[in-house]
Amino acid sequence: MNSRDRSPDMNPQQIGCSPGYTFAHYRLEATLERYLWSIDRVEKLGYKNFGLEILEPEHVALYRQPGAISRILERSYRTGVNLAHFTLWHCCTSLTSSDLDRRKLGVRQFSEGVEIAKQLSIPLVAIGSAWPPEWVRSYSPEYEHAPAAEYFTPSTTEYEHLWTAYSEAMRQCLEIAEKESITLGLEPRANSLVSTADSFLRLWEKLGSEQLRCVLDMMHCAFQRENVPVAIKKLGPRLAILQVCGTDGRTLNHLPLDPEDVGLKRAIASLAEIGFTGTVDIELYGMPVEIVDDCYRNAREILERHIMGSTC
Questions:
Q1: Of 30, 231, 259, 300, which is least packed with CB atoms within 10 Å of its CB?
Q2: CB atoms inside a 10 Å sphere around CB 250
Q3: Is 287 helix (H, G, I), strand (E, B) or coil?
């Protein structure tokens, strides 16, 4: 290969710690002090990139406390931990709703998240896909805000109408993000309207915005039986984040990384092939709190070895 045609090498500096770290310790009991604590902790675990999030609508108030934004930015500066993205879970289900008023609520909630991200100078806001809540019989039990377990579609006509309505809600979110020069990352999730790289690309082609990128989660890929290296190459420059964890392919558990996981090695090799410049986020939770930090430290070390090996 001519050196001029060679894809840029990946760098361990691309490794990130997802907001799942705070969730692994505290679940939905989020506070500003716990997010500040997390920034300190992930720096000690060797991470240079970290993500914040809004889990529930009431958590918006955490960032609106007097001095909250300044305290977060000061902690980021002092530790050298880059705030790489801001995940908004509080709007995801509403955006997929079959009810117009609830979709409008989702767009407003997304807008308030973008406002906070701008104040924090975070360049990427991420959301996850879901199934219309009106068409869900039960949700997966592995974690709060997990996707549907039992669900249905009333009819082909209603599904197509909903897809069009969801696309319009996403278009409005994109316009909000674009106005602030913020990238919108969408995570395909199992049993959701957008569940694979292909369904993400269907939406991307409909909206046609370079500001819309994919957040690909290896756990959801395993559950959907999606080939991760193939998905990475399909997405190409539209991939913003790869979320990695151990998977069993049967549940929605985010398991510790296995250093001998061939699938992970192949995924990292595929990232190197496409010249990926985004973040590779480690997302682990569901294990006892006592081992969370060890799991995140070990995962970073495993990922560093894979990344260095992919560039040899």
A1: 259
A2: 8
A3: coil
For 301, the 3-state DSSP assignment is: helix
Give dist(CA 243, CA 146) in Å, integer.
16
**Global pTM exceeds 0.90:** yes
Distances in Å between the Cα of 79 and the Cα atoms of 16, 44, 74, 275 are: 14, 9, 9, 28
The residue to which tokens 């399909």 are assigned:
234
Question: What pairing do the DSSP bridges indicate for beta strands 148-151 and 183-187?
Answer: unpaired
Q: What is the pLDDT of residues 218-269, one digit of tens each?
A: 999 999 999 999 999 999 999 999 999 999 999 999 999 998 889 999 999 9
pLDDT tens digits, 95-132: 999 999 999 999 999 999 999 999 999 999 999 999 99
**What is the residue type of 106?**
G
State the amino acid at position 167 in one-letter form. Answer: S
Instruction: Enter the tokens of residue 24.
Output: 């692994």
**Residue 14: Cβ within 10 Å count:** 20
Which residues are 212's β-sheet partners?
Answer: 184
Q: Report the SS3 class of residue 171.
A: helix
Which DSSP category does 59 fall into? G
Domains and CATH numbers, the chain: 3-310 (3.20.20.150)
